[in-house]
UniProtKB/TrEMBL annotation:
This is Alkaline phosphatase. The chain crosses the membrane at residues 40-63, 132-154, 166-185. It comes from the Bacteria. InterPro entries: DedA_domain (IPR051311), VTT_dom (IPR032816). It is found in: Cell membrane. Residues 22-152 form the VTT domain.
Length: 204
């Protein structure tokens, strides 16, 4: 960050979206603290962080958009049990985003652990690039501003921001893992039940 300045902040936030283990809860408060030392402005820090974050969201958005609804349904039907996604889930997600896509993207960009993932269903649902960028920008600027301002105010205590937000991220990630396990077992049992029913029908 000291060596690359604004470009370094943008790069770190880009990587934070591509590779989630890099936490914005550390990057942006540190960037805010760095702005207090001179050489960078708080506004510049927020702009750089927001730009990097938005650029990092685009690859995930296009990954969902390129595969599309039909191919994702086929993929879910064949391999869905390994990622706990069924064809019905794809249908429900598409319907949900058709009704609430814009607000879902905006709110999702404010939630640790969800910020990156929200781009994928937005792309799958066919959400247009302009509204995706618009609502992503609103959520992203709000999130990066909050973290950077906290770091700016706390100065050399900037790491306290991560200490407060980290437990929230841990709870969300733990919940996602438990949800994954539950959905995997449910779909596995459902497929076994379907096979038994098909075998019984074939026997009759």
């Amino acid at each position: 960050m000291n060596g690359l300045g604004y470009a370094g902040i943008a790069l770190l936030m880009f990587l934070e979206n591509i590779f989630p283990p890099i936490p914005s809860e550390v990057v942006m408060p540190l960037a805010g603290f760095t702005a207090t030392q001179g050489g960078m402005s708080l506004v510049g820090v927020i702009v750089a962080g927001s730009l990097g974050s938005l650029l990092g969201a685009l690859p995930w958005y296009y990954a969902g958009k390129v595969y599309g609804h039909k191919r994702m349904r086929e993929f879910a039907d064949r391999y869905g049990r390994w990622i706990t996604v069924s064809p019905d889930d794809i249908d429900h997600a598409t319907d949900w985003f058709n009704r609430h896509g814009r607000s879902a993207v905006l709110i999702g960009r404010l939630v640790p652990g969800v910020r990156t993932l929200i781009s994928v269903p937005a792309g799958i649902s066919g959400m247009g690039l302009f509204p995706f960028l618009l609502y992503s920008t609103i959520g992203t600027v709000a999130w990066t501003s909050l973290l950077a301002i906290c770091g700016y105010i706390l100065r050399d205590q900037w790491s306290a921001v991560e200490a407060y937000i980290s437990p929230v991220s841990t709870i969300l990630i733990t919940g996602l893992v438990l949800l994954f396990a539950y959905r995997f077992v449910r779909q596995w049992r459902g497929r076994r039940r379907q096979r038994r029913e098909m075998s019984q029908q074939a026997g009759e």
